Request: fold
Amino acid sequence: MKSLPIKSSLLALALTWAGFAAAGPAEQFDRGLLAAEQGDYQHAIQYWAPLALAGDAAAQFNLGLLLHSGAGGKQDEKAALEWYRRAAENGHPLAQSYLAAGYLEGWFGLPKDPERARYWEQRLGY
Reply:
């Protein structure tokens, strides 16, 4: 009988992942957004992570925000920067702005680099 909670947990996890897989990308993103708005950052990460890994710039940026703020658990500025960079490379304007400001001001552990800041500003069309 001790294995019953483990089996129940595995079943719940399987059903949760099945729900993620059944949702289309837009629906999955929206579910993550709703979870984040309700303060359920762990579920937001679970919804957004597969999208981010598949190249969804908005999901990448949002994961960066959660990691940067520590809302999804432990604050991890280095990982946040990587998600901001991926989102920026995929054309996300706010991520591009974050990198431009980061290089201009030396934020996110980045070195001050006006040339790199200009690169991201130009991608924005400034």
